[in-house]
Amino acid sequence: MRKNTYAHIIWDWNGTLLDDLNLCLETINNLLRKYFLPPVSLDNYLDVFGFPVRDYYKNIGFNFEKESFEFISTEFITAYEKGRPNCRLMPGTRKILEQLLSLGYTQSILSASKQAYLITAVLDFGIKDYFISINGLDNHHAAGKFDLAKEFMMAQDLNPNSVLLVGDTLHDAEIAVSLGVDCWLIPNGHQSRQRLRSASVPILDSLSILLNQIQKKG
């Protein structure tokens, strides 16, 4: 039998398995220009992006007294979804998913993306069968990820001690703490390594070393 601490891996999607950083940066800058606001650089984006997304939008200049958050976020996701088919998975994604599956780990996706968009993206990449569940939100405003994770763990009767959450933001670490599960972060998504260090959780350089680190845990 496999000897290790974890039995289930919860994957974040955007910035963890899906390489969409450039698309998000391009999309938000196009939106900023539309409203005559200064664009953000890559370094600035990595330093300011976060959750709740409403606060991130305000921090980069949007005034919700002029246009509602719901309207702005709808504009963003509409443009994002047009460009999303041009994104790729992070290097090594298919290999690590296949390795974990073959070794008997169960896997799921937890995302702040709208469920319908998330399912479409996962199907487009042909990786749906690696996951026992794909969990997105019922809205496109990136709100409610923790509740979604809690409901999933209860439905699956998962022991928090057997679960590892892998993500790319401090929000992923916050969710992990709330759920009582371990969290590892990979700084190749939407927040800088420097910011991720403040979470005091393991930081991996890439997906390619994840399996080795899991096996060391055993």
General description of the model:
This protein has helices spanning 21-34, 42-48, 53-59, 69-83, 93-102, 115-125, 145-156, 170-179, 193-197, 210-217, and strands at 8-12, 18-19, 88-89, 106-114, 133-137, 163-167, 182-185. The strands form 2 sheets. It has a 5-stranded parallel sheet with strand order 5-4-1-6-7, with helices on both faces. Strands 2-3 form a two-stranded antiparallel sheet. It is globular. The protein folds into 2 domains: 8-19 and 89-217, Rossmann fold; 21-86. It is built from 10 helices and 7 strands. Helix 1 (21-34) crosses helix 4. The longest helix is centred in the middle third of the chain and has 15 residues, at 69-83. Helix 6 (115-125) links the parallel strand 4 and strand 5 (133-137). The protein is of the alpha/beta class.
Oligomer: single chain
What's the rounded overall pLDDT mean? 92
* Low-confidence runs: none
Strand neighbour order, sheet with most strands: 5-4-1-6-7
H and E string: EEHHHHEHEHEHEHEHH
Helix count from the secondary structure assignment: 10
Helical proportion, percent range:
40-55%
Instruction: Name the structural class.
Output: alpha/beta
Counted beta strands: 7
Kindly report how far apart the N and C termini lie.
Answer: 12 Å
**Strand fraction:** 5-15%
C-alpha-based Rg, rounded? 17 Å
Overview in brief:
The chain is α/β, with parallel strands linked by helices and 218 residues long. Helices cover 45% and strands 15% of the residues. It has 2 domains: 8-19 and 89-217, HAD superfamily/HAD-like (Rossmann fold, 3-Layer(aba) Sandwich); 21-86.
